[in-house]
Amino acid sequence: MKHTVKWRQGLVGVGLLSVTTASLAFDDDVISRGEYLARAGDCVACHTAPGGEPFAGGLGVESPFGAIYSTNITPDPETGIGNYSRDEFAAALRQGERADGKHLYPAMPYPSYSLITDEDIDALYAYFMEGVAPVEHTPERTDLSFPFNQRWGIGLWDWLFTNDETFSPDPERSDEQNRGAYLVQGLGHCGSCHTERGLFFQEKALDDSDDAFLAGEVLEGWYAPSLRGSGDGGSAIERWDDQAIVDYLATGRNDESAVAGEMTSVVAHSTSHLNESDLQAIAAYLNGLGSHGDRPLITDAQVDETDAMLTRADVENDLGARLYLDNCNACHFSNGRGASQVFPSLSGSSMVNADDPTGMIRVILAGARLPSTEQRPEALAMPDFAWRLSDDEVAELATFVRGAWGNDAGAVSASAVAEVRDELPEDRVTSAPVIDD
Predict the structure, then answer these.
(1) 221/289: higher pLDDT
(2) Which residues neighbour 261 within 8 Å (Cβ) at sequence distance 6 or greater?
(3) Mind listing the pLDDT tens digit for each residue in 230-245?
(4) DSSP letter at 237?
(5) DSSP 8-state symbol, 187
(6) Of residues 185 and 374, which shows the higher confidence score?
């Protein structure tokens, strides 16, 4: 479908008005702040289809009930949100309610966005009304089967699993930690992926008053690990310090790990655009959360044991080890620790040690590509091995890695590999969709 882009011109003045777009005019600083907040909320990721105009909608978000297509949130008055008042805009973000009164599907993270403050709602409204190009485009309509096509039922779901309270700072936390909590729980909606879902696909917790919050979840074949630190101030996610968390969010890599899967897009289009202060606030908040299921510390002796085994002459008797040497050793090395900020460590990796090996299998088969960010523009890539390794060989390789260098995860079957291979696109896409923003 052809997209027609028309920039609104000639609007001057200041103010935040709860009226239609015909009379709106906002201060440039407010619009700029709204743009930054939209980055924090990663709005562009879901509301931009591959090859489409930014925010014009049409991306199919897979759910257990079928594909849910994102809406056009540009200020086009006919096909977008150009006629939304400020209060109607706020209701969509906080309560998941459209201007016509119908409910949005909770693929829209309004259970988290309900925490957004009035001031930030005002700034976001200013940005989407005057900082975003109107695009005349009607996305594909969401058409779920019965009973999931009955939007009135979402009202009951909302009553059971959401709340209407905006963010309230915790007096026992520092200002920095409270800022981090606001970003993680609210705009960043980190719980959407990192919190386990319940029977009705609801997040089991929306804030850290419950230990289930950010305790890890498998979503669409990717393991979103626990984000809860040790709480003792000396270690954090997988024993990362604050700077390691900042580096990961700003560049998609740190000394221990690198992004893959859905997190690649999050870093590319959201967290890499946050300022240093907010990244430090997120790290301070996460490091203050209590522990939840952290793995025992891997010792040098465990790493050395595998390292020595891979250099012995009898390695030919171990197919998994031989496959590792032939395909992985050049980048991840015999100690499994890779190269800092370049090739991620496999020893202690959350993806490698996940109960569900799907994410690791997917990376082996389809490869992965780091996002290009302002601080680290090089988009380093791991090649795909689907063309080179059979299902049995991938299973042997994955099983070896999941038990090497102190890792303690279960074996991988060839049938599990075959299932992942069947779901790969024909071109084996290895990077996040490119969004020109």
Answers:
(1) 289
(2) 221, 222, 359, 362, 363, 368
(3) 444 333 466 788 999 9
(4) G
(5) I
(6) 185
Rounded (5°) CA angle 124-129-130: 100
pLDDT of 63 higher than 80? no
The Cα–Cα gap between 374 and 12 comes to: 32
Q: Where in the chain is the domain with CATH 1.10.760.10?
A: 300-423
For residue 66, what pLDDT is reported? 76
Q: Are strands 368-369 and 222-224 parallel, antiparallel or unpaired?
A: unpaired
- DSSP characters over 320-349: HHHHHHHHTHHHH-TTS--BTTTB---TT-
Report the predicted TM-score, pTM, of the whole model to 2 decimal places.
0.83
Q: Which fold has domain 300-423?
A: Cytochrome Bc1 Complex; Chain D, domain 2 (1.10.760)
User: Does domain 4-145 sit in CATH 1.10.760?
Assistant: yes
Q: If DSSP codes are grouped into helix, strand and coil, which group holds residue 354?
A: coil
Kindly report, residue by residue over 339-356, the tens digit of the pLDDT: 888 888 999 888 898 888
Nearest CA among 389, 352, 391 for reference residue 260: 352
How many other CB atoms sit within 10 Å of the CB of residue 234? 10
Cα dihedral 314, 318, 324, 326 sign:
positive
For residue 434, name the pLDDT band (cuts at 50, 70, 90): very low
Could you tell me which of 299, 307, 303, 400 has the C-alpha nearest to residue 357? 400
Query: Rounded to the nearest 5°, which phi and psi values hold at 296?
Result: -60, 150
pLDDT of 402 above 80 = yes
Using CA atoms, how far apart are residues 419 and 403, in angstroms rounded to an integer?
A: 22
Sign of CA dihedral 236, 242, 245, 249: positive
Q: Do 402 and 411 meet the contact criterion of CB atoms below 8 Å apart? A: yes
* Residue 339 bridge partners (DSSP): 343
State pLDDT tens for residues 192-208: 999 999 888 889 999 99
